[in-house]
Amino acid sequence: MIKKQARQIYLCNLLLLSLIILLSSFQRAGTVRSTKDTKTQAPDKPNILLIVWDGVQAQRLGSFGADYMHTPTIDKLSQTGFTFQHCFVHQAVCNPSRLTLLTGLRPDAIKVYDNQTPLHKNSPDVTTLTQVFHNNGYTTVKIGGVVSGGKEDNMIWDKTIKAKGSWVGKGYLSPESKKIIAEYQQEHPKAKTAKGPAWDMADVSDTSYADGKSTVAAISELKQLKKGGKPFFMAVGLSSTHLPFRAPKKYWDMYPPESIRLPDNFYNPKNMLEYSMNKTSEIDGYANMPKYQEMVSDSLARIILRGYQASISYADALTGMILNELKKQGLDKNTIVVFWSDHAAKVGEHHGWAKHTNFEIDTNIPLVVRVPWIESAIDKKSDKLIETVDIFPSLTQLCKLDGPANLQGNSFVPLLLDNNIPWKEAALSQYPREGGKIMGHSMRTEDYRYTEWIRVANGAIVGRELYDHKVDPGENVNVAGDKNYKSTVEELSVLLNKRWEASVTPGGFNSSSAWGPLTEKSKK
């Protein structure tokens, strides 16, 4: 058995080495041979257009299987690009997740686990993705909510654009929402912020909400970048898909109330641990919401879910406007388009709302990459496990730039050329509890999600979770305590700890051997 495993690892590494040599020859020639036996010239300095949505489940997009959703733009992008169906974030909350994209480092490496800690507080010397592009002659532009913020923007972006408009509070435009906010302000005159509804539906144009203004700015910026002639890295963040869900009325009309179906698992997982679910939810911070997320009624849940679906279709339409302008300016053929969400979010699944867990529903996000000159990456879907930290090295390789040596991800460019090559067998996520005293280390393999909850002070394991995706893709039953899974738990625990030890140190995953096959495939 051991000799057989060693031979498997040797063959995997041999294949990877051969592929690296092949890729190097492609880069030197500046061409990629297509599947149609023609050659497509790759630009010397491709542009990057990064589209970031906030809190979108992959399973709520048409190209990811949701045939009831109206997402024609992302569906078309998938048809012209490469769709990663199993991409995972490292922590299901905005700031840490976005910073892992920006740095190519995991939360434990940059020591950021919340939305308040700025990147350079604990990592003053970190080199960001946009700094690499800036240092190589690219103009870097941020529009809307993308990554970081405040004073740090000047260290990361050449130009930042923030939407301005006539909305109230967190982007409300409807008379009903404005009335609720006004009443709250009268009742709570000393409150720093006024509570508004968890959704907003106004009969306005697409460009009236903040995301619409950001889209207008993106269109204008593309025109200027075209005139400037320099390569660019432009990131556009759309946040209507984050609470409060905001969309013009016409997008709500796409989803009649009677069409809204609650999730099949509108209940807590069986054998769930006290750490598994977030005890509080963002949704209880909005007007007319119950104190505890489990108290959200079916009727209220349907309204919230309808708003979520409407906001996704709205973001899809705005993304379409940006991509149409990219083509209008003649930039589509030499621009890499990346569509990514900073995390997913529960909208009733597990009877929960928002994110803040290690569950699949919060960590599995959509990732679509379009590289026009790689024909093997057109209209393809992959079920390989991908992590957010893989994006940084992938973009630098596609643009033939040298990135930092300490990146923790693996470039997925080899998959764009051949999706059948051996690949990593695990993706890692984490989430803190009790103010960081407890940390949940979670690992997704092809068949399982395994999580260990660790007391940080002494490393003691205070809880385990195991979800068998072969029979339970919704992660509704924790089988970690089931005797039939004892050997599986032991095997996955060894693998998880090996992976986690490597993840703490920047550069820990650069070696292909770090992602060798599992020591033993479970029969269960």
Task: Explain how this protein is built.
The chain is α/β, with parallel strands linked by helices and 524 residues long. It has a single domain (2-425), classed as Alkaline Phosphatase, subunit A (3-Layer(aba) Sandwich), CATH 3.40.720.10. It contains 15 helices and 18 strands. It has helices spanning 2-29, 72-80, 94-103, 107-110, 119-122, 129-134, 153-156, 175-187, 210-228, 249-252, 298-328, 360-363, 391-398, 413-417, 486-504; strands spanning 31-33, 39-41, 47-53, 82-88, 139-144, 159-161, 199-202, 232-238, 245-248, 335-341, 346-347, 353-354, 364-370, 380-387, 427-433, 438-444, 448-455, 460-468. It has an eight-stranded mixed β-sheet. The chain has a four-stranded antiparallel β-sheet with strand order 15-16-17-18. A hairpin with a 4-residue loop joins strand 15 and strand 16. The longest helix has 31 residues, at 298-328. Mean pLDDT is 87; it is low at 1-7, 20-39 and 507-524.
